[in-house]
Design a protein that fits this description.
The protein has 500 residues and is of the alpha+beta class. The protein is built from 15 helices and 18 strands. Helix content is 34%, strand content 18%. Strands 1, 2, 5, 6, 7, 8, 17 and 18 form an eight-stranded mixed beta sheet that branches. A four-stranded antiparallel beta sheet has the order 12-13-15-14. The protein has a two-stranded antiparallel sheet with strand order 3-4. The longest helix has 21 residues.
């Protein structure tokens, strides 16, 4: 299952020692078969499988350790037609998986990318499990964190991202120690060099002291992750500030700049989507997360109402669909909303924040923590939150009418009590995303392509650098960030990248 802190530190130290040895062995005059920028979810399997084919591999990683976003990812994965499904009597197929992705994304997912994932994901999960990856009891499941699949094809481990890294690290380290893979840690790829024909031929790499070295390679794979920790790029591609400080710190978008410099381009920024909102700890940007809210009616039926910056309800609060809530928030000002309730709800309903007691909620309102507001009247609450008083009062009156008559304007079914007992409360929620939506365009061989569709010779990309818009569309499809990265890294190393 999960790795102990001591074992993890020991493994990190071993990788660092091997990286130092690799740095000494690596020779700027050596012509590698494959140079990989990024030792994360896609880069590690690409190196493992390429080395197994006999390729000479150089991996350049800006962080002091390998792992990338696996070091902090919850790491849900998905696949249809796996051995574990068959053992459980689950009849499933890649085609059914693809159709589910098209349904959940409403046709916004990249069909080429999606099919490449679904056709090959089962082999990836089977490989992980052969090497020791352990599922949580009862998995695979349909999923609940995101819109559920029609069949159980959603896999998870108690060790989360570390569990996947723990499986791959020994194979990667073995290849490094055997001299099949050279590893350079704390090195930043700063330039892609090309021949007169436009074919990629080398990567200029800078060390922490600013010294540069050009490493030649027949093929270059950009697996350096997204831009989710780069506030400027995040706002550029999403149109929103980076409110939440929860992304991998080295996700600075380096690979996007490298790909663009040789003709690649960015697509899918228009598919930006946030979750339904988190409670931020501060008013600073970015802020840490203070709490998660139980919005799933399958886990807790809502007693509250949700209002936007105009003071109006905008979604049926007890709608079962996760995607319906997220899509509703997509059209609200600032992707922000307030959860509103009264003293009777606070007294009688299960606490709405995960892991919070009623007393902790009361304390947050009493101390006027950021994102927590109260007032003796609806108008006073409106002034505290900055919402329009008359509109907010009308919204509450309209909801109470629905409770009284059983005819809610939004079709809501769970309406236990009116909101009428002072004081009144509101918790501000901010829609956020910790992943990168936009990404570099590739073809069905994962070659970086220009706007005219032609491939940049010798240049490939995999992982979050492709963007969630390609691998999920304008939706959150469970497992469709980590699964494509692992699968594409494996495919590139195993057969897609030319060695001669």
């Amino acid at each position: 299952m999960g790795m102990s802190k001591r074992r993890f530190i020991q493994s990190v130290s071993a990788v660092t020692a091997l990286a130092a040895a690799g740095a000494k062995a690596a020779d700027g005059r050596k012509h590698y078969d494959l140079l990989i920028v990024g030792a994360g979810t896609a880069g590690i399997p690409a190196a493992i499988f390429a080395a197994a084919r006999g390729a000479s591999v150089l991996v350049v990683e800006v962080a002091p350790v390998i792992g990338g976003t696996l070091l902090l990812s919850s790491a849900q994965i998905c696949a249809a037609g796996t051995r574990v499904q068959r053992q459980m009597g689950i009849v499933d197929s890649p085609e059914e998986h693809l159709q589910d992705l098209m349904r959940i994304s409403r046709g916004t997912i990249d069909p080429t990318i999606a099919r490449l994932v679904t056709d090959n994901a089962a082999d990836t999960i089977d490989w992980l499990m052969e090497k020791g990856y352990e599922l949580l009891p009862g998995y695979p499941v349909h999923g609940i964190a995101h819109e559920p699949y029609s069949k159980p094809r959603y896999y998870w481990s108690a060790g989360r991202g570390i569990a996947i890294l723990e499986v791959m690290r020994p194979m990667f380290m073995e290849a490094v120690s055997a001299g099949k893979v050279d590893l350079l840690l704390e090195r930043r790829a700063v330039e892609i060099q090309t021949e007169a024909s436009g074919a990629v031929s080398a990567v200029l790499v800078a060390d922490s002291g600013g010294k540069h070295n050009a490493w030649r390679a027949r093929n270059v794979l950009l697996a350096s992750g997204g831009y989710a920790s780069n506030p400027r790029m995040y706002q550029q591609f999403s149109g929103l500030p980076k409110f939440l400080d929860g992304s991998y710190q080295f996700a600075q978008g380096d690979g996007i700049g490298l790909a663009k410099s040789v003709g690649g381009y960015v697509r899918n920024a228009d598919k930006f989507l946030t979750n339904f909102g988190v409670v931020l700890a501060t008013t600073k940007i970015p802020s840490t997360r203070l709490a998660n809210t139980v919005f799933h009616p399958q886990l807790r039926q809502p007693w509250e109402i949700y209002v936007n910056a105009d003071g109006r309800r905008f979604v049926r609060e007890d709608v079962p669909s996760v995607d319906a809530r997220e899509q509703a928030l997509r059209f609200q000002p600032g992707r922000r909303h307030w959860v509103l309730f009264d003293q009777a709800v606070l007294d009688r309903a299960p606490p709405i924040l995960e892991g919070w007691s009623r007393e902790e909620l009361e304390y947050a309102f009493r101390m006027a923590d950021p994102s927590f507001y109260s007032g003796d009247t609806i108008e006073e609450l409106a002034r505290a939150t900055g919402l329009p008083p008359a509109t907010l009062a009308a919204t509450v009156e309209g909801y109470n009418y629905g409770v009284h008559t059983g005819n809610d304007f939004f079709g809501r079914r769970h309406m236990p009590i009116k909101l009428q007992k002072a004081p009144f409360y509101a918790i501000r929620h901010q829609g956020t995303s910790i992943t990168s939506t936009a990404g570099i365009a590739v073809n069905d061989r994962l070659q970086v392509v220009r706007r005219d569709g032609s491939a940049v010779p010798n240049l490939y990309a995999a992982g979050e650098i492709l963007g969630a818009g390609a691998t999920q569309g304008q939706a959150f499809c469970g497992g469709m960030m980590v699964t494509p990265a692992l699968t594409f890294g494996r495919l590139l190393g195993e057969r897609l990248i030319r060695l001669a």
